[in-house]
Write a structure and sequence with these properties.
One of its GO terms (biological process) is negative regulation of DNA-templated transcription. By secondary structure, the protein is an alpha+beta fold. The chain is 29% helix and 30% strand. The protein is built from 8 helices and 8 strands.
């Protein structure tokens, strides 16, 4: 077995242990030397495996202390949901009249990039969702979302007109914990200009996001195109 395949196998083993609860949020992983003994590999192989888990957002390295399963500081977020540190549209516009128009809803195979973000195979199925979200009668954001069908079960079009995160946490009983986000300014397409009511040349804020459950499984890959004059972004930094 090649070194690359070996470190990937070790990362998958630790990832599964985190998912099963063998390592709880905030707990420390075994020391590198102990992992070397456990898996009978070199330190560099273990380092590559840990680095992959860091990139996945499952663990965090603390200099001089070791590697810890990532956890969110409950004092920094809403008691209702740990997801509130980067909350969804419905939460952000709580108290406003929200309307959602479902532009597209289908079941497809993901492309290679999306499959990689969701840690699934391109042969698996995902929900492919496009929604226009409005607040107080004004269009605010177009969301392009894909979710693994095997993980987010029973999703119907009626759920898309409400909060998807409310369905995931309230109906499916899952716990949403954190996301990786990239925010950039881009020019909208002609269709997006029309749907968002943009006249003239005005960029939109594109948010690329992979969101994770508390057991570390990615459940959503999305691109959101926000009217730049309608949205502020807030973040909580977690060490």
């Amino acid at each position: 077995m090649s070194g690359g395949a070996k470190y990937q196998q070790i990362a998958d083993t630790i990832r599964e242990a985190i998912r099963k609860g063998d390592y709880l949020p905030g707990s420390q992983l075994p020391l590198v030397k102990d992992l070397c003994t456990e898996f009978a590999v070199s330190r560099i192989t273990i380092k590559h495996a840990i680095d992959e888990l860091v990139r996945d957002g499952l663990v965090v390295k603390r200099r001089g202390a070791g590697t810890f399963v990532k956890a969110v500081d409950d004092s920094a977020v809403s008691k209702r949901s740990k997801f509130s540190q980067f909350g969804g549209f419905s939460e952000y516009y709580s108290g406003h009249k929200i309307h959602t128009e479902v532009l597209h809803f289908a079941i497809i195979h993901p492309d290679v990039e999306v499959a990689g973000q969701l840690k699934i195979s391109p042969d698996d199925f995902v929900y492919d969702i496009q929604r226009l979200r409005c607040a107080d009668g004004e269009p605010v954001v177009i969301e392009y979302t894909q979710m693994p069908m095997d993980l987010i079960t029973g999703l119907k079009e009626k759920h898309l007109k409400d909060s998807l995160y409310r369905y995931i946490e309230g109906t499916l009983g899952m716990h949403i914990q954190f996301a990786h986000r990239t925010v950039r300014a881009v020019m909208p397409t002609e269709m997006e200009q029309e749907l968002l009511g943009i006249t003239g040349k005005m960029p939109v804020l594109e948010v690329q996001q992979t969101a994770f459950l508390s057991d570390g499984r990615p459940f959503e890959y999305s691109l959101s195109r926000h009217r730049g004059d309608k949205m502020d972004f807030k973040a909580v930094s977690v060490r």
